[in-house]
């Protein structure tokens, strides 16, 4: 039986996320949870970090794309993640 491919998810500003959505990356899973996050001025660092952790725990996600300014904003949680 063929194994299903992994998903690419995106965390970024509205323009970046919209571009990826228009390109076919991004959807709602069967539980209606999006595999993208639009980070706006009122998005908390905790929400950003929690979403990142949630993405990490999903077995069907292979790549997490993150805008540079978001990575700088929540650097602690990203730096603490071991890529091995």
Automatic annotation (TrEMBL):
GO molecular function terms listed in the Swiss-Prot or TrEMBL record: proton-transporting ATPase activity, rotational mechanism
GO CC annotations, alphabetized: proton-transporting V-type ATPase, V1 domain
InterPro entries per the UniProt record, alphabetical: ATPase_V1-cplx_f_g_su, ATPase_V1-cplx_fsu_euk, ATPase_V1_fsu_sf
Domain of life per record: Eukaryota
SUPFAM superfamilies referenced in this protein's UniProt entry, alphabetically: AtpF-like (SSF159468)
Keyword check for Mitochondrion: no
Keywords: Hydrogen ion transport, Ion transport, Transport
Classification via Gene3D superfamilies: ATPase, V1 complex, subunit F (3.40.50.10580)
Family: Belongs to the V-ATPase F subunit family.
Protein name: V-ATPase 14 kDa subunit
